Structure formats: C-alpha cells, structure tokens
Amino acid sequence: MIDTHCQAEEVDAELREYTKEEPMPGEDGGETYSYPLSSWVFHYKLRIMEWIVLLGFELEIYQPYEFAGMYWVVQHYISSRILHIDRIRNHLLHQATKSVPGEWTAQQQDTLAYLTYLSIEAKAQHDLVAALLNVCQQYPSLHIPMLLSLQI
Q: DSSP string spanning 26-93?
C-alpha cells in the first residue's frame, strides 16, 4: 500500500504540472496542494487499517485486556481520517472560491455532499469507538467483547 501511495503522489505531481494547480495557503503558513489521487489512496488506506483492527474483534483474536488498546488504535485511525476528510473539503471549498460565485457544478455539489456524508459517518464511528473504549477502561473486570459489529 505504501508503494501505491507513493505512486499516487508522483502522478499527482505530474497532474499538477498539466493542470497548473495553484497551492492553497496552509495552516502553518506554508502552501499545500490537493493531491487528489494520493488523498483517495490515503483515505482508503486508513479505512483498511480500521477494518483490519475491527476484524480482529469479529475473529476474537484479541484478549479482553487488549480491547481498550485496540479501540484506541481504531479511534486514532478514525481521527486521522476525519482530519484528512476536512483537508479534502477545505481544498474543494478553496477551489470553489476561485470559480464564479453561485456556479458550483453538479460534480462539486455531489463531492461536497459525499464528503459531508463521510465526515458525519466517521464522527459517529469515532464517538461509538470512544464510548466502547471508555467502557473498557471504566469496567475492565466485565471483559466486554465487541458490543457492536462496526460496519465501516
């Protein structure tokens, strides 16, 4: 997966030359580009890592004392995915400010709606995993297995 991400960044660099993409000002004062392909790869890389950890619960490979740690790992992956979705949304909104006001294309509107859906979904998953983590930390003697099958 690392090779795929690196290859996507290389293709993004080539696309940037053809599209003449202008950088967006970053939060740290630097400039950042959208990296559309590598952003997609990174998003799915995070989702796959979440799935792998969650499948460990379904396959019952974790011991009860490992539950809290594994929920923390999933929560970290989801937090990273939320930040990444917000980064993608910021680039889309920045790109939209350069177009004629009020003339968003249907594709831009669909993309924004999809990003909103992904953001809401990830935040709900984050809250659910945070609650499960809290239960495991507060009541370690209960040995609570995976309470819900998270269909991410």
A: PTTSSEE---HHHHHHHHHHHHHHHHHHHHHHHTT-S-GGGHHHHHHHHHHHHHHHHHHHHHHHHHHH
**Can you tell me the mean pLDDT for 77-99?**
89
Average pLDDT, the chain: 84
Q: Where are the domains of the chain?
A: 2-142
Confirm if 16 and 33 have CB atoms less than 8 A apart.
yes
pTM of the model: 0.82
The residue among 80 and 36 whose pLDDT is bigger is: 80
CB proximity list for 28: less than 8 A, separation 6 or greater: none
